[in-house]
Amino acid sequence: xxxxxxxxxxxxxxxxxxxxxxxxxxxxxxxxxxxxxxxxxxxxxxxxxxxxxxxxxxxxxxxxxxxxxxxxxxxxxxxxxxxxxxxxxxxxxxxxxxxxxxxxxxxxxxxxxxxxxxxxxxxxxxxxxxxxxxxxxxxxxxxxxxxxxxxxxxxxxxxxxxxxxxxxxxxxxxxxxxxxxxxxxxxxxxxxxxxxxxxxxxxxxxxxxxxxxxxxxxxxxxxxxxxxxxxxxxxxxxxxxxxxxxxxxxxxxxxxxxxxxxxxxxxxxxxxxxxxxxxxxxxxxxxxxxxxxxxxxxxxxxxxxxxxxxxxxxxxxxxxxxxxxxxxxxx
Length: 331
Known about the structure:
The chain is mostly helical. The chain has helices spanning 3-32, 37-59, 65-69, 71-93, 98-105, 108-120, 126-143, 152-173, 181-201, 224-249, 251-257, 260-273, 279-296, 304-308, 323-326, and strands at 214-216, 219-221.
């Protein structure tokens, strides 16, 4: 990986983490104003899909054939990595504490490391294992999981959300689809919005909206201001920046970099909502960053997570090989 490419990838990953992390603070006034979580998610995904429709078509040069060739991968991305993660997470937090659900969901980087270990039978480098331990320890301190008995179904559904996050990183890493990042994000969000809409219509997701003025950034604003903000910044931009970062850095580093979302969420909530950051959270944030640095120190080789988790869901463009073939690992 070139130095400049790596720096740009890390910058985009952190920008995506900031955008995703700010989403909660932006949406919270809507929730306090009478919106259900499902309604907020549906509106933010729909707004993002609309905003990215034209840029996505331009990136494709108005040729939809690449999307059709990668249709199954795009469908999996939309249903699992976009709609599935949202539905699973909000279903989980209805049964278990939000902090616990977050902790389970953000075990995705460690899950990627462990899965690559099992599939390739190559022990991860010590620096990666150390980074995993340090980052997850920091995550525990930041989210502060609640004690007490947990609903087993809620824990399982939070695990489903974690798997969805892992799929997000794996599919985002694939550059053999012939689909530009912005087009992948646009199509994934559009299909995800349809899936969420259907889930709302059948009653799987409660849909309650309140078209009233809400508190926003220290003042009052119409409901559509936070909706547009979260749709444009925390969804459209976040997904595009995140996919581009994944393609530059690979699944392993970018997934650990995604843990910065938790840190940014705490910082933005403190800045916009006045929710104080305690010393334990601050230490946790430093540990997460330390874990990311350790993973960044890994000696580069073909990304075992990408090789092990390569999902050949569709035949790629003629002449393009699978990940193992491109890495020279195929028999």
